[in-house]
Amino acid sequence: MMLPPGTPDLDVLDLLVSVAELGSLGAAARRHGITQPAASMRISALERRMRVKLLDRGPTGSELTDAGRAVVEHARPVLAAVRDLVDDIDRLRAAQATRLRIAASKTIADHRIPHWLAALRTDHPEVIVALDVENSTQVAALVRDGAADVGFVEGPHPPTGLGSRVLGSDELVVVVARDHPWARRKTPVTLAELAHTALLWREPGSGTRDTVWDLLSSEGAPAGPAAELGSAAAIVAAARTGMAPAVLSRLIAAPDLATGALVEVSSTDATRLTRKFRAIWRRSSPPTGPAELLVERAARLEEARR
């Protein structure tokens, strides 16, 4: 069924209703973000289209005619129905939107995920992403439980029972406060020295902790920690005080190394002080659709960094 000739536009009906609600054409124009002359022209065009006078214009302002008030009463339920229609369409669109649930360790979430998501969004702006940030063990648990479609972790080994792909690597550095004795040493620190030194450690489950522990264990059981802290930021703050050395991602240590708040201590095994960034997923459901695209974008960007 086609609309009858003379059917008014919804925008101008909405403007007319605003005149009735606010009591003046000028106030209605301001509500709609247009000038009063433009509002007057639109109402005049509506009057010509409907062939009925809607406003009495006078030196002191404009007032709705009886016909104008009648049109407003008819317009209100029409406009309400249109708003309901638009809301329903928005809900339908949201329900059909492609959603991607990801989980990532904090270092990756802070220093890699924004770039990976930007690359994904360039080609697929319709994808809605939800991100959980946890340590690597917790990320693996979210993936196993199906709470995340794909996860991103760092560490020496892939999590047990999950599929994985190495995306790139991350350099680790030994850092101390500028007044720590190691800040003035002339010889590189060895893995054996690190293993027998009380260090600042991340909490169990951290990918950084697992990597460093795995590496130092090759020199014997690592010494007890100077402290176990639940975030890289806390370790940086503790290292600045001179409490103990720490082994951190260069990504995290870089700002303090640049200002001199922390000093990098060279290592005889610098090439071994690395950890891998991995994408992980349930083996029964490898990444497809947006998840697969994100992994591919991440791998491509990490390859470009090498």
UniProtKB/TrEMBL annotation:
GO molecular function, one term: DNA-binding transcription factor activity
Keywords linked to the UniProt accession: DNA-binding, Transcription, Transcription regulation
SUPFAM superfamilies noted in UniProt: Periplasmic binding protein-like II, Winged helix' DNA-binding domain
Record keyword 4Fe-4S present: no
Keyword Transcription regulation applies: yes
Pfam families: HTH_1, LysR_substrate
Gene3D superfamilies in UniProt: Periplasmic binding protein-like II, Winged helix-like DNA-binding domain superfamily/Winged helix DNA-binding domain
Domain (HTH lysR-type): residue spans on this chain: 8-65
Family named by the database record: Belongs to the LysR transcriptional regulatory family.
Protein name as annotated: LysR family transcriptional regulator
Species per Swiss-Prot/TrEMBL record: Nocardia coubleae
